[in-house]
Structures are given as C-alpha cells and as structure tokens.
Amino acid sequence: MTGPKTGPSPWWNAEYHADRRPLLLARGRIRSAIRAWFEGQGFVEVETACLQVSPGNETHLHAFKTEVIGTDLSRRDLYLHTSPEFAMKKLLAAGEEKIFTFAPVFRNRERGALHAPEFTMLEWYRASAPHVTARYETLFEECAAILRTAAEAAQRQTWSYKTRVCDVCVTPERLSVDDAFLKFSDIDLAATYDDHTTNRDALAAGARQARIKFGDKDSWADIFSRILTEKIEPKLGSDRPAILDHYPSHLSALARQVAASPKHAERFELYVCGIELANGFGELTDTVRQRAQLEAEMVLKQRLYGERYPIDEDFLSALAHLPASSGCAIGFDRLVMLAAGAERVDQVIWTPFPETGK
C-alpha cells in the first residue's frame, strides 16, 4: 500500500498487515508442523544465546557488534551471532545427541527480497549415528521430509518463484558441485583444484569462456562464487528440489573431508526454485585443522574487508569432545516465503526490519 505523501506503508499499517496476515498465519502452521516432525523423530528443541564472543568466522558474513558492561563498569566486545552453530556443537560436546532450534540470527550488509538483517534459522544436529556416511546423507532425507511437512502445512505442494516452479514433494535430485559446473557452465571445475591447492588462472580461463565477468584481483573462490551465482544456482530446484553435494574442501571450513576424496567436503546445499534454502555438513571435529581454517578465513576477511572477528576458544575446546556428527541449517523465512507463495521474506516476518527512511 502506498500513500500520496508518506510513501510505502509501514508494516503496522492495518491494511498492509491484513494483506500479510494469511502469510503470517501460514508461518505459524509451518513452524508448528516442523516442530512436531522433529519431536516425532526424537529431537530435543534447544535455545541458544544470541550474544557470543564470536559471531562466527566465515569470510563473507558480517556481524553486528555490541558491548557488555559489567557491574564494575568493565567493558568487552560481544557480537550477535550469525548462526547458532558454535553453541549447538557445544551442546553436542555436552552429551546431547539430536537437537534442533528456531534461532534468531543477525547478519549485517544483507538486505533484499531474500535477505533480512534479522531472520530465523532452523538448525539441527545429530550425533553418535552408527556410520559417518549414512549420518551425513541422512540430512538429505531430513531436508526432503521438512519440505513435505511445510508443503502439507501450507497446503501447497507446488512452489514457485519468478519463472521457476518446483514440486517439493518429489525426491530431490542430487548432483556434485563438479558435475553441476560441467553441466551448466561447461567448466571443468575439478581440474582447477585438489585437496591442497587451487589454480586461479585455470578457473579464470573457464570463466572468460563462459562470459563471466570478474575482477583482476578476484581469487579462485571469488570466481567460483560468480560462476555459481550466474550459471549454476538459477538452474537448480526447477521441477524438483536439488541437492548440490561435495563442495570443494577449500570452501568448507566447518565440514570434514570426504574420506575417499579429500579435495571434496561433506557439504551440501538444498535448492528450490533457484533459491538456496539449506546448508549442511558432516561436521569437522579435528581441532587443529578447524583452528587453521578459521584463522585462514579471518586473514582473508581482514584483507577483503579490513576487519576480523575473534576465534571462539571455548568452541575449539568443546570441539575436542565432539562426537562424529552432522548438521544442517535452513533459512526458515525463505522456506515460509516459498511455501506460502510470498515474493519477499519481509512478507512472512511478523515485525520486519524497516526500510531505510521509514
């Protein structure tokens, strides 16, 4: 709704809210149905604190920083977490085996139809399953079950976004990152990296041939991301959900390597209608390797953005006690947006972050 003088109406405008209310009620049904599904599978719902020593250590995720003041007026920096991952892994180290949460999370520099500075993450972990590979692949089945559960709660089996349409009750297609690059961009990604090094020039040559624009200072990972965004993601999750599996281990700081192929990581992403919904891992439990990878992420962040976040030493201490485990995170607002037939995540958030100037 738009007024002649005030511009777009705020979310609390009664008429605007009335238009959104069916979508918000669908959100509640979907959340209740998913919660019931997890509880039926023996998962325990947990709540994680938003304020953390470290918000997470991914190069391209940006946090909100704040300050805690003690009763003695001492001060120290804290952050709003970008994911509940570190806290949930600490709970696994404490002895929990199957946990899930609907966590409020916060990411700076993110705003758009598919992004909000504050949003809800559906995240779950399982530990102590009998076999590592089966445990990791169980996440695929759980993602498919969550899609079906959301579709039933929303009473919409066929989801769409822009020109893409997807039947989310069909078994997801699974393809590797290497195969997807070859299929959709004709780039032999596998030939440009191994478990130790990447060949930036080789990937750059493939990107030029595919008419992908990139900068002279872009790294192998930067070029990878540009190809993925322009050539791969738009093709994923049309007709049926898609699981993009076996990411390069260089791009998977929190995931363990595939035993039979160390250049690949036990990492996947779930796509519906060209939209990334989930990111899942077979969890890395090697403390030395994890520290090295988190430090490398922060070195790159410092170079690119002029800032870095602390390493959560408590998390690394807990990691030494972490059993073999796997975990997955779904952007709950995106899931609801697609299930309810909305066009923007703001439409399915009860009190969305206001636009600039409102």
Total number of helical segments? 9
Amount of helix? 25-40%
Q: Which structural class is indicated by helix and strand composition?
A: alpha+beta
Order of helices and strands: EEHEEEEHEEHEEEHHHEEEEEHHEH
What is the CA–CA distance across the termini? 14 Å
Shape, please? globular
Mean pLDDT: 93
Work out the radius of gyration. 21 Å
Number of strands: 17
Order the strands across the largest sheet as they lie in space.
3-7-8-17-16-15-12-11
Largest sheet: 8 strands, mixed
* Percent strand: 15-25%
Low-confidence stretches: 1-5
Keywords:
358 residues; 17 strands; 8-stranded mixed beta sheet; globular; disordered N terminus; 9 helices; 35% helix; alpha+beta
Task: Give a description of the structure.
This protein is α+β, with helices and mostly antiparallel strands and 358 residues long. The chain contains nine helices and 17 strands. Strand 15 and strand 16 form a beta hairpin. The two termini are 14 Å apart.
Layout of helices and strands:
Blueprint: E1 2-3, E2 7-8, H1 14-40, E3 44-45, E4 51-52, E5 64-69, E6 75-80, H2 85-94, E7 98-106, E8 118-127, H3 132-154, E9 158-161, E10 164-167, E11 173-176, H4 177-185, H5 200-209, H6 220-232, E12 242-245, E13 257-258, E14 261-265, E15 267-272, E16 275-282, H7 287-305, H8 313-319, E17 325-331, H9 332-340
Compact overview of the structure:
The protein is an alpha+beta fold and 358 residues long.
